[in-house]
């Protein structure tokens, strides 16, 4: 394991970080703020009590030196990143238990997995994340009462540690094409798990490499000689005492990645590995002892855990973005560069309108995502309760909106974080800014849990169905109500309401255009699948437009109806952010507005002017707004974004952590450089 580093002293003591000293520019910014930042923090937490709980929780975890890194993970080897991640993940479990036993306010590991507290403690990922995010939820969602009674307590207590093994080397998206088989033998009442090809090796599951001793394995079920499609099975991977792989189980880790290097993603293959019949998760479909197959009410219920994770990802993105934009805004208040007026002192870079444009729409995006995530979470809970009561009617709508929100929230957040990095100039490129690691964590979410293009195509599929219903005059579900062919579209009026209405018109126009393309494709002799493929660029675009209409609608609705308790000063700032989010996206989609909403050139100019006005209005509150996210320095984890703004001192301090600075002359000098310097070629 990496030891403590010798070189921690900065070369000159007067450039060391001074506890309690706050950068004067940041102090001035905080004085300018027009609203009460604590009021906003309370709103974000969902009330004073929840705020206090969070503070208590953060204190409990973040003041524990065992959970803080001596060495930043980016300076560790891949193996040490895992070791360090696992050590902390296990310690966290112990500490959580301690907190619960003392009547603490945390009831499960969940609050430690998301984008803020979790990523502060385990910056590079948590090898137990999949156990909590997918293994336990799959047991809960797909197990019979008996299976739940047997497995869930063991799993909560970490007496078994699991993962979710679905993706294979050859298939990630197309899960109906998975190759792993589970073949039932009624004589022994066992399933035999087998990996018939190299492409059937499971590939990617988090914690699979060296951590998990069990997995939910998704495999093609064969019984009585017939294949019934993919089903989930609980499979023991490692011996409970020795942790050695079970006979016939081939398991390992897949190697370093762009980010998330402590998550211990693994590979897995089986050579006819037997498991008892009662380890098929049988809440939905069953295999009876004699091998008779009993169908599920819907084969899509097997996809329930993916749906759950897509829902929580949206919330997770808002947390990551709050962190990144806090770093960039604080740095932009401290950093001074160039001359705005020749001869005058260098302004704070945040005074450049282009810098405001880079950052403020992303402060607004945190709220836009939060409000949509909250709505989606509520819908998820309603729909799952209904499914448990046998009513599956709303499942397609939940699937459709979860897919596009997952895709749009992850793509927007990745773009936003990269923009935050660019907004910090060269220093944003440093690992110690924490922007590269944050980007690494976030960009993964565009791929995992359903690759984004594929997710948008799922939504597009639902939109095409909704359009056909609308044309037939049938009733539509709330998220696609705007497709109603009798709906009167309101004319453009240079207001934020008009923008939100405009996004609906755009989505409706694009959906109709896709339907026409599909129809023309088929009329021209293409099969419906070929026509779909030909229209797919348009379809993805229509799904994104639908999602944007949903997000802006939700955001405006919250500002109009969900903030009555807030002070007028704060409501005004919240309304500015909502307007900015809407105008920002309207201007990014000017072509669409011109095409579908009957706006004219001068309306675009009005939007541009209004965007500039909003940026200037938000400017004095920018630091206050990010302070309101109330992210502790340990969570920010950045030399550029700490509360005190001692940016240059922290950059120097973090450079001194590099092992290359441990000695005045590095060993490599003797090993290679000295010879080169002396060589006479
Ligand atoms: C209790 C414990 C608490 C713990 C809480 C923890 C909370 C933590 C908080 C924050 C943490 C955040 C996250 C942290 C870290 C996460 C770590 C990374 C995890 C990554 C894990 C993975 O990636 S697992 C693997 C995921 N894999 C995928 O997503 C595969 C994607 N592919 C698919 O989903 C499908 O194959 C497909 C949808 C693309 C296509 O499926 P299929 O071929 O079967 O369908 P069709 O296209 O033919 O469509 C048929 C029909 O079905 C409809 N449909 C498809 N899917 C669904 C669904 N899920 N639900 C409902 N309906 C569905 C489809 O729309 C079609 O409908 P039609 O009516 O016929 O049109
Ligand atoms: C960090 C990380 C963690 C992960 N953790 C897990 C885990 O714990 N458990 C697990 O089982 N899996 C996990 N995965 C796997 C993940 O779910 C898959 O990578 C994901 O579903 C995408 O599948 P794929 O990699 O096969 O991509 P592919 O499906 O091969 O996609 C490649 C390209 O093909 C395109 N494409 C594919 N199908 C279509 C289509 N129908 N129409 C149009 N375009 C298409 C995609 O848009 C993409 O551009 C993880 C992945 C990552 C990156």
UniProtKB/TrEMBL annotation:
Domain Acyl-coenzyme A oxidase N-terminal: 36-161
Listed GO biological process terms: fatty acid beta-oxidation using acyl-CoA oxidase; lipid homeostasis
One Gene Ontology cellular component annotation held by this UniProt entry: peroxisome
GO MF annotation terms: acyl-CoA oxidase activity; FAD binding; fatty acid binding
Cofactor(s) required for function per UniProt: FAD
Pfam (any one): Acyl-CoA_ox_N
Annotated binding of FAD, by residue: 167, 206
UniProt keyword annotation of Metal-binding present: no
Domain spans labelled Acyl-CoA oxidase C-alpha1: 303-464
Record localization: Peroxisome
Keyword rRNA-binding attached: no
UniProt cross-references to InterPro entries, sorted A to Z: ACOX_C_alpha1, Acyl-CoA_ox_N, Acyl-CoA_Oxase/DH_mid-dom_sf, Acyl-CoA_oxidase, Acyl-CoA_oxidase_C, AcylCo_DH-like_C, AcylCoA_DH/ox_N_sf, AcylCoA_DH/oxidase_NM_dom_sf
Residue ranges occupied by any Acyl-CoA oxidase C-terminal domain in the UniProt entry: 496-677
UniProt similarity note: Belongs to the acyl-CoA oxidase family.
Protein name: Acyl-coenzyme A oxidase
Organism placement in taxonomy: Eukaryota, Metazoa, Ecdysozoa, Arthropoda, Hexapoda
């Amino acid at each position: 394991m990496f030891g403590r580093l010798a070189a921690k002293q900065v070369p000159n003591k007067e450039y060391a970080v001074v506890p309690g000293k706050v950068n004067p520019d940041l102090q001035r910014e905080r004085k300018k703020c027009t609203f009460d930042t604590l009021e906003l923090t309370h709103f974000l937490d969902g009330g004073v009590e929840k705020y206090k709980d969070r503070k208590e929780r953060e204190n409990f975890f973040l003041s524990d030196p065992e959970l803080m890194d001596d060495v930043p993970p980016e300076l560790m080897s891949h193996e040490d990143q895992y070791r360090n991640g696992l050590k902390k993940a296990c310690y966290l479990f112990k500490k959580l238990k301690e907190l619960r036993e003392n009547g603490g306010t945390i009831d499960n590991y969940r609050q430690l997995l998301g984008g803020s507290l979790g990523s502060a403690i385990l910056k590079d990922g948590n090898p137990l994340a999949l156990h909590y995010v997918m293994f336990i939820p799959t047991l809960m969602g797909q197990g019979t009462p008996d299976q739940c009674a047997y497995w869930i307590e063991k799993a909560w207590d970490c007496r078994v540690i699991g993962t979710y093994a679905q993706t294979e080397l050859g298939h990630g998206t197309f899960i109906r094409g998975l190759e792993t088989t589970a073949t039932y033998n009624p004589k022994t009442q066992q399933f035999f798990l087998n990996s018939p090809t190299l492409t059937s090796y499971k590939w990617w599951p988090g914690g699979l490499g060296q951590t998990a001793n069990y997995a939910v394995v998704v495999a093609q079920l064969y019984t009585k000689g017939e294949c019934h499609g993919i089903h989930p099975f609980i499979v023991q991977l490692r011996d409970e005492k020795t942790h050695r792989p079970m006979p016939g189980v081939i398991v390992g880790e897949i190697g370093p990645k762009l980010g998330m290097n402590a998550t211990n993603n693994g590979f897995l293959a089986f050579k006819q590995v037997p498991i008892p019949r009662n380890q098929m998760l049988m809440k939905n479909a069953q295999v009876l002892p004699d091998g008779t197959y009993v169908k599920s009410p819907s084969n899509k219920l097997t996809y329930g855990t993916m749906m759950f994770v897509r829902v929580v990802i949206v919330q997770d993105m808002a947390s990551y973005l709050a962190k990144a934009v806090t770093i960039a805004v604080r740095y932009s208040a401290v950093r001074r560069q160039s001359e705005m007026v020749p001869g005058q002192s260098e302004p704070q870079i945040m005074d450049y309108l282009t810098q405001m444009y880079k950052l403020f729409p992303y402060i607004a995006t945190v709220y836009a995502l939060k409000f949509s995530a909250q709505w989606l979470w509520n819908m998820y809970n309603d729909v799952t309760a209904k499914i448990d009561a046998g009513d599956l009617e709303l499942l397609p709508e939940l699937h459709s909106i979860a897919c596009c929100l997952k895709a749009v929230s992850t793509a927007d957040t990745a773009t936003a974080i990269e923009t935050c990095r660019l907004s910090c100039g060269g220093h944003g490129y440093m690992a110690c800014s924490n922007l590269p690691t944050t980007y690494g964590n976030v960009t993964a979410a565009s791929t995992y849990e359903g690759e984004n293009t594929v997710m948008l195509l799922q939504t597009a599929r639902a939109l095409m169905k909704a359009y056909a219903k609308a044309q037939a005059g049938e009733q539509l579900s709330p998220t696609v109500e705007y497709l109603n062919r009798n709906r009167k579209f309101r004319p453009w009026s240079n207001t934020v309401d008009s923008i939100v209405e405009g996004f609906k018109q755009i989505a409706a126009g694009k959906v109709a255009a896709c339907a026409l393309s599909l129809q023309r494709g088929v009329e021209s002799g293409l099969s419906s699948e070929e026509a779909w493929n030909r229209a797919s660029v348009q379809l993805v675009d229509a799904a994104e437009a639908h999602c944007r209409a949903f997000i802006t609608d939700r955001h405006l609705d919250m500002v109009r109806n969900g903030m009555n308790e807030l002070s007028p000063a704060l409501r005004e700032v919240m309304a500015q952010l909502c307007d900015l989010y809407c105008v920002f996206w309207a201007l990014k989609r000017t072509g669409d507005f011109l095409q579908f909403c009957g706006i004219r050139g001068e309306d675009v100019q009005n939007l541009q002017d209004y965007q500039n006005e909003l940026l200037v209005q938000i400017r004095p509150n920018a630091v206050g707004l990010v302070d309101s996210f109330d992210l502790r320095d340990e969570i920010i984890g950045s030399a550029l974004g700490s509360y005190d703004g001692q940016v240059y001192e922290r950059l120097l301090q973090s450079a001194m952590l590099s092992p290359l600075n441990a000695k005045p002359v590095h060993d490599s000098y003797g090993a290679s450089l000295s010879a080169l310097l002396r060589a006479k070629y």
